[in-house]
Design goal:
Number of strands: 2
Number of helices: 0
Strand order of the largest sheet: 1-2
Oligomer: single chain
Radius of gyration: 12 Å
Structural class: mainly beta
Shape: globular
Largest sheet: 2 strands, antiparallel
Length: 53
Amino acid sequence: MLDITGKSLIKQSLKKSTQNMVESIDLAELTKGIYFLKLSKGKILVVKRLVKG
């Protein structure tokens, strides 16, 4: 999880699974704002924007 400036706030590795992967991230300590969730596996990188209001 990154803030709007690109600073890393939460870093977490997902557990390997043979089925659908579901992971929870506690965002309670984050203030209102815009954040980016960055997911990567090998050469694949996905970034999603998250707005906490």
